[in-house]
Specification:
This protein is an alpha/beta fold. It contains 15 helices and 17 strands.
């Protein structure tokens, strides 16, 4: 699904609006959030605990309990939650960030952690700046550049490795640059993939991504199997398998067979590999086809980076003319497959593939919640996928995904009950991210700023990323940025 900017077009300078500073960022006194109902998603059934208070100090939750029982430090800033529902902040496990302006769109929709799935050097700096409170945004996790081989899915931003020697060198270089997560992709050969996997394991790096298929040859997958069988990857320690349509393509050889899907789901569950369905990624393709392109002009598309929009025009034109019935049939099966995997005990997490095609940052995750509900997951299961399940998949269940002492202070305050209306989760009255509180006014300002990316800065980000991989940035066209 991932796309990339193959060329740069001249554009008038747009300047990023001044990002609002976190309301608690300057002096960082302890913060007491009182009089809230805490939504606990850790059990088999969701529980709402009334009249609770949450004490936060230096970005960590230090106490949770009945309002009358929580001691208020003398220096604390006290915020009355007004009986609103407090729940853990949402996690988008699959995004593409091209410019820091987009960060506010995530916070405005209650997303307090994002995992960027195609790293460039600026992402490493940005993550540090967010943690330090210098930039308003959700916590940013990033992989390194995508590792892939030549083939039908290769893109210019992918780090292409042809053999084991190149793959090991690429993983070591990513580690030396500061990345601790790698992303693998479909076209990797067996030799390159296994070398990358082993090198990452030796360096203590995690692996996620598309399941590598090996070299694509004529007849694959319908008349001959892939060079790398899907089952071979089950015990390789993937943090997540990405995209339910990719799993169907590789694991089921694109057969829409529910019995085979149940068999595969049981094996994935037994292996303990979480799945990030990203149903929205295919849904948006389908909607462009169904509306013959009108869907591309819906509200908030101006949050998408203009460079991405320009490059995606070919895909927009293609999908505006795609046959509708096959796309609908495929999407219906992807939803059924997601439910089959969830019922088998596979840990389902939420990702949106936001930042590419027409997948709008922030808003797309709320759409993903609805699609998981359409697939048959209960509201509690959907919200757990976006919070506690994501923390578990990231190996952070002891520090994230719940409102509990010792956990990171990432939570959202809601006027409505998301168990009754999932949209309520995307309309927070307040967001606390890394201990910094943003009221609705600040969130609205961040959302507005998200539609004003700095194009010159975006281009510099892309050029730096290509240069880090040894790729000539002139592939972007135009003059190199100074």
């Amino acid at each position: 699904m991932e796309a990339f900017i193959f060329r740069f077009f001249p554009a008038v300078a747009l300047f990023l609006a001044l990002m609002p500073t976190p309301l608690a960022a300057q002096a960082d006194p302890p913060l007491l959030l009182r009089n809230v109902r805490i939504l606990d998603l850790s059990g088999s059934d969701p529980v709402l605990n009334p009249d609770q208070s949450v004490l936060i100090d230096r970005g960590t939750i230090t106490a949770v309990g009945p309002t009358a029982a929580v001691t208020v430090p003398s220096a604390a800033r006290v915020v009355d939650g007004g009986g609103r529902i407090a729940m853990p902040g949402l996690v988008d496990m699959h995004v593409h960030v091209w410019d820091e302006a987009a960060l506010g769109a995530y916070l405005a929709r209650g997303v307090t952690t994002i995992r960027n799935a195609s790293g460039m050097p600026f992402h490493l700096r940005l993550a540090q700046e967010i943690t330090a409170g210098q930039i308003a945004g959700p916590r940013l996790i990033t992989t390194g550049p995508i590792l892939n081989g030549d083939g039908p899915n290769a893109q210019v931003n992918h780090q292409i490795v042809a053999n084991g020697t190149e793959a090991r060198a690429a993983v070591r270089a990513q580690h030396d640059a500061g990345y601790r997560r790698i992303k693998v992709y479909s076209n990797l050969s067996r030799e390159a993939y296994e070398a990358a996997r082993d090198e990452a394991r030796a360096l203590g790096m995690t692996v996620m991504g598309h399941t590598p298929e090996g070299v694509r040859e004529p007849g694959m997958p319908r008349t001959r199997p892939f060079n790398i069988a899907f089952e071979e990857l089950l015990d390789d320690g993937f943090m997540t398998f990405e995209h339910i349509e990719s799993i169907v393509w590789h694991g089921l050889r694109d057969a829409h067979d529910e019995a085979a899907a149940k068999n595969l789901a049981a094996r994935v569950a037994a292996a303990g590999v979480p799945v990030d369905p990203t149903l929205l990624a295919f849904y948006n393709l389908m909607r462009v086809a169904e509306t013959r392109g009108e869907y591309l002009d819906r509200p908030d598309v101006n949050i998408l980076n203009p460079l991405v929009v320009a490059q995606e025009q070919e895909n927009y034109d293609r999908w505006s003319g795609e046959a509708i019935a096959p796309a609908r049939a495929a999407f219906d099966f992807y939803k059924r497959a997601t439910k089959i995997f969830a019922d088998a005990g596979v840990l389902i997490v939420t990702g949106s593939d936001a930042g590419i095609f027409t997948n709008i940052p922030g808003q797309s995750l709320i759409q993903e919640l609805h699609l998981l509900s359409e697939a048959g997951l209960s509201p509690g299961e959907v919200l757990r996928a976006a919070t506690l399940n994501a923390a578990r998949a990231l190996g952070e269940a002891d520090q994230a995904g719940r409102i509990a002492p010792g956990h990171r202070a990432d939570l959202i305050l809601l006027d409505g009950n998301p168990l009754d209306d999932l949209d309520a989760a995307g309309r927070p009255a307040m967001v606390i991210a890394g201990g910094h509180l943003y009221d609705r006014t600040a969130l609205d300002q961040l959302h507005k700023a998200a539609s004003q990316p700095d194009l010159a800065r975006t281009r510099k980000n892309l050029i730096e990323g290509l240069q880090a991989q040894g790729v000539d940035p002139s592939i972007l066209g135009g003059q190199p940025a100074s």
